[in-house]
Design goal:
By secondary structure, the chain is an alpha+beta fold. It is built from 19 helices and 34 strands. The strands form 9 sheets. The protein has a 6-stranded mixed β-sheet with strand order 2-3-1-4-5-6, with helices on both faces. The longest helix is centred in the last third of the chain and has 21 residues.
């Protein structure tokens, strides 16, 4: 049986704490201030059995912050309504918060029935509750009439909770671990302990976890669940985790512990929000609000792009920017409350946490459903080349579904695990063709451009670029010659008088050096022509096989290189080894250029290095 966590909800003084005591025998109001004032201020925790935890939350409007922290860690709600009052303002606010956080299955307890002698009145309260919850589409497991003094109805409620909890199944297969911290304390002899409900994943003793937003690493020293030691915890478990080598001040409520490197802190998100029907607040652009994520409360501002405001009952996408960094995951739910006076305005779901201007231009189009959003973001981020593993980290809560979505939508996966769609390739083809068109127009003497240069200019991963270029060459829209790419429709234009002059000058300049290698940097310093013009001319002469690169640093005329190879063939016909001095003799070059030339000959397989000399290589006679 999976562990389940139930949270109370309801107006102040409607008997939530008394009901929890009746169900569990545990008094959850443990602070002296709570006992003195006779009201719940902070969260209380009780265990119905070894698998069921009840979190008792405060009902007073001043402590909604604590209520939302409790509701963030529950699976089901226990809505408490006093028979003598009926549904009250905080009842509605608590119901709104449960709805916002996705808690859609509840039990209802009508308390204080001993104060009402009129059964028809209680029937009306019962009807009002059902009508209200029906409007929210809540599933009601049972609605019990409770007398906490006599215990009437308590056993029936307890039986209903246990029977439905036994049927609860929680997905425990998710890879990454996350838990929102709702309490922390020091246990003598053990150190810092944090408690919470495991949001997802699995953790065991000895695991390293990351404390966020502090970005502090710690090891799990010990684990308890329902007061008993255990070796591991999984999704849905209520747990107390003993952490090593950390201070208590960095572990207060609102912190998150998670698998290291999985969740990143952020200062802004795109979210789908929904304004509750029971508010007179209008959410406007740049409005400062209180935001409740998990067990934390932070401040932020709204940025509404395509409309002026959101009124009650309205939905839409917007940007939220936070005043502090927080750890947020896609599909996290959160509550929005006004800055002052504090009232619940609405809530939302995180759609994206890391985005650029392209995403901002289309935030209204970002889908709510994770599967559709994954494809939308993959299409939008097509130039960023994100790996499968990083997509899983981004879609933290549905990481186990990413690979099946890839198969469903025919997403391509490269050898480096980069994901892209066929539509991404089509976008890439158009951009490469535009790039080549501009390149040809501004580099008229160059016959093409290398893949490395295209990749550097585009900022693309080479795996993606290879697929794009292969598609273009297969379609004969792009040609490839000597590892240079050009548009198939491109042909060198008629040369200008200046270009013809530069071609003749540079070829003669290199040819006149004979076997002495020419440094590229020395050519580009010739003041007679612009550096860009000389580089273009070098590329042109190389494409026409007039000159040859020696190690990408030096140049030699093709005729002299051919003569050099011929001289080497003759040399090795009567000698087994070639020294630097021997090369200088047969070519007349200096030691400065002899060494890079020998290194090139080795790399090309014309020679093989043997200590300080060279012997015949396999490619010399090819």
């Amino acid at each position: 049986m999976s562990q389940v966590v139930i949270g109370t909800a309801g107006h102040i003084d409607h008997g939530k704490t008394s009901l929890v005591k009746s169900l569990t025998g545990i008094e959850t109001d443990s602070f002296p201030e709570e006992k003195r004032r006779g009201m719940t201020i902070d969260l209380g925790f009780a265990y119905l059995n070894q698998n069921i935890t009840i979190i008792d939350v405060p009902g007073h409007e001043k402590f909604i912050k604590n209520m939302t922290a409790g509701a963030a860690n529950i699976h089901f709600g226990l809505i408490v309504v006093a028979a003598d009052d009926g549904i009250m303002p905080q009842t509605i606010e608590h119901i709104d918060i449960l709805n916002i956080l996705g808690i859609k299955k509840v039990w209802v307890a009508i308390t204080k029935i001993d104060l009402i002698k009129d059964d028809e009145w209680i029937d009306l309260i019962d009807l009002e509750i059902h009508e209200t919850l029906t409007r929210y589409n809540f599933e009601i497991f049972s609605c019990e009439r409770i007398n906490n003094l006599s215990g009437l109805g308590v056993n029936s409620l307890r039986s209903s909770i246990i029977s439905h909890a036994q049927l609860t199944s929680i997905n425990k297969s998710l890879q990454y671990f996350k838990m929102n911290v709702d309490r922390s304390f020091i246990k003598k002899g053990f150190g810092a302990v944090v408690t919470g409900t495991v949001d997802q994943g699995k953790a065991k003793i000895g695991d390293t976890i990351e404390i966020l937003p502090n970005n502090v690493l710690s090891k799990i020293r010990g684990i308890q669940t329902h007061g008993k030691d255990t070796q591991s915890i999984v999704t849905g478990d209520r747990a107390a985790v003993n952490l090593s080598n950390v201070k208590l001040e960095g572990l207060q409520r609102g912190r998150v512990i998670a698998s290291p490197g999985i969740i990143k802190n952020t200062r802004q998100i795109v979210a789908k929000i929904n304004i509750v029907n029971h508010t007179n607040w209008v959410l406007k652009n740049h409005q400062r609000v209180r935001l409740h994520f998990g067990t934390s409360e932070i401040f932020g501002r709204t940025f509404i792009k395509n409309k002026k405001e959101f009124k009650k009952g309205q939905k839409g996408n917007l940007i939220l920017r936070f005043e502090t960094e927080i750890p947020v995951c896609l599909d996290d739910r959160f509550v929005i409350r006004s800055y002052s006076p504090m009232q619940t305005i609405g809530g939302g779901i995180v759609l994206h946490t890391y985005f650029d201007n392209k995403i901002l231009k289309s935030i209204d189009k970002i889908p709510l459903l994770p599967k559709k959003r994954f494809i939308f973001l993959l299409e939008s981020a097509w130039e960023h080349s994100i790996t499968l593993n990083n997509w899983k980290k981004l879609f933290f809560k549905v990481s186990d579904k990413i690979e099946s979505w890839c198969k469903e939508f025919d997403v391509q996966i490269t050898d480096s695990n980069i994901l892209f769609t066929l539509q991404n390739i089509e976008k890439g083809k158009l951009k490469v063709q535009s790039f080549l068109k501009v390149f040809h127009a501004t580099n008229s003497l160059r016959g093409g451009v290398s893949m490395e240069t295209i990749s550097s200019s585009m900022g693309w991963h080479q795996d993606f670029l290879k697929r794009v270029l292969k598609s273009l060459t297969d379609e004969k829209k792009v040609g490839k010659l000597n590892d240079l790419y050009s548009l198939s429709s491109y042909s060198l234009q008629t040369f200008s008088k200046l270009q013809l002059e530069q071609i003749r000058f540079l070829e003669e300049y290199i040819k006149n050096s004979e076997f002495v290698l020419i440094e590229k940097t020395s050519i580009t310093k010739i003041k007679k022509y612009k550096q860009s013009e000389i580089l273009d001319t070098i590329h042109f002469l190389k494409s026409k096989n007039k000159i040859k690169d020696i190690g990408n640093k030096f140049l030699i005329h093709k005729d002299h290189f051919s003569a050099l190879i011929s001289n080497l063939k003759k040399y090795f016909s009567y000698s087994n080894e070639l020294s630097i001095q021997d090369l200088k003799k047969i070519s007349g070059i200096t030691r400065k250029t002899a060494i890079p030339l020998l290194e090139f000959l080795d790399e090309a397989g014309y020679t093989i290095r043997k200590e300080n000399n060279r012997i015949l290589g396999p490619n010399l006679y090819d």
